[in-house]
Specification:
By secondary structure, this protein is α/β, with parallel strands linked by helices. Helix content is about 35%, strand content about 25%.
Length: about 240
Amino acid sequence: MSADLSARLDLRRRARRRSRWRRILIGVGVLVAVVAGAWLVGFSSVLETRDVSVQGNKLTTSEQVLDAAQVPLGTPLARVPSAAIRQRVLALPAVADVKLHRQWPNGLGIEVVERELVYQRMDAGSFQWVDAEGRVFRIVSERSPGIVAVTSNNEQRMLADVATVVAALPPQVAEATERVEASTIDHIVVLLVDGRSIVWGNADNSAEKTAVLPALLAMSGTVLDVSVPSHPAIR
């Protein structure tokens, strides 16, 4: 083997060794960076939770939300127990949904979605606010203007069925409603301020019942029966 060839081979071996060490050093550097980043995000005090804000709440005070949330201040933001916080806030009567937003480097935002009022159930001089799911989420002493009032029992199925009926009423009918009476889930009656009544029956097929209602309202008669929407009646 000539001296020139031997020198070239030696240079190649050195180059391969340098390349191998370079890859090893790069790998070690990446690993160190990953470990350092994980420690910084998950364990250091640099990105710990220091500030908590609340938004979207009207019926529930920010103090009530914060008390329920029990956010562990000082915990790294990445390790805040989101699911547990969300479940605690959802236990508040007026809260329908909760979203948490990490606001780096040190903030946590709690976005509250509150229940929407569909009707008010009259109960011993007070008025219970009921949402579309039939959930009672607030009790007040006075009737809110423009909101349908209802007399019924407080069974969950009944409250939900009445919500379906009230939500299906055309706006002009809802505005002209004195109250809704629900003696059973199969006998829901809408009483209008002009003295007429709408026999709704149960909550089934409410869309079809709404569709036939305008024609009946245009006719003379005091009782409008849409309980069987394929065969409405008036008397």
